[in-house]
Amino acid sequence: MIRVLLADDQDLVRAGIRLVLKHADDIEVVAEASDGPEAARLAGRHRVDVAMLDIQMRGTEDGLEAAERIAATAPSVRVVMLTTFGEHTYVARALKAGAMGFLLKDSTPQELIQAVRRVATGAPVVSPPITRHLIDHYLGSGEPPADPRLGRIAGLTDRERDVLAMVGTGASNAEIGKRLHLGEGTVKAYVSRMLTKLGCANRVQAALLAHDARLSRGTR
């Protein structure tokens, strides 16, 4: 059973997510919090597997600070950040805090359930619109930061480079498979190997790296 903590300062949002997760027989919501400090306390107390945190919560700490505290006090907990479209700055900070999932609050029920399952196994999950928005932001800045992992791209196979380029557009595994004529399971395997070779924790980091290397231009 996957034990989940929900943290959001809006009761209605928590109730909605709880209702969605209740339909999964392998997921149990064991704790709820309305602010960051409470979320950090409950994460360890209830032996939580996955913490779903709203990025912006009222109070002395927001979801980002809660994620940082959870990473320090309960490192086995997998953190998923719940965001609204356009919060690219917050997502970048959450990446540094070790968050493994980034979902829009208007994700479908099935996307929420699958995200919890995947993150519980240690697999990162990022909503494609969030990836695309981050990419657009960094492209618009005109000065993407240099990344020491750029040299590792040379160690990728041609197909892994193709997959990385597609990840750089924010494409989902299904979209990559359709474009490259690959099965979705095969795409997942390529993505996993590519992330390992590049030393990237998740698809967002890989997508930004693809843009820094100019791999994704012309793939849209």
Automatic annotation (TrEMBL):
Keyword DNA-binding carried by entry: yes
Domain HTH luxR-type, chain residue ranges per copy: 149-214
UniProt-listed InterPro entries: CheY-like_superfamily, NreC/VraR/RcsB-like_REC, Sig_transdc_resp-reg_C-effctor, Sig_transdc_resp-reg_receiver, Tscrpt_reg_LuxR_C, WalR-like
Classification via Pfam families: GerE, Response_reg
GO biological process terms, semicolon-separated: phosphorelay signal transduction system; regulation of DNA-templated transcription
Entry keyword Transcription regulation: yes
Gene3D superfamilies assigned to the protein according to its UniProt record, in alphabetical order: 3.40.50.2300
Domain Response regulatory, chain residue ranges per copy: 3-120
Superkingdom of this protein's organism: Bacteria
SMART domains: HTH_LUXR (SM00421), REC (SM00448)
Residues modified to 4-aspartylphosphate: D54
Keywords: DNA-binding, Phosphoprotein, Transcription, Transcription regulation
Any one Gene Ontology molecular-function term assigned to this protein's record: DNA binding
PANTHER family: TRANSCRIPTIONAL REGULATORY PROTEIN NARL-RELATED, TWO-COMPONENT RESPONSE REGULATOR
Full protein name: LuxR family transcriptional regulator
Source organism: Streptomyces showdoensis
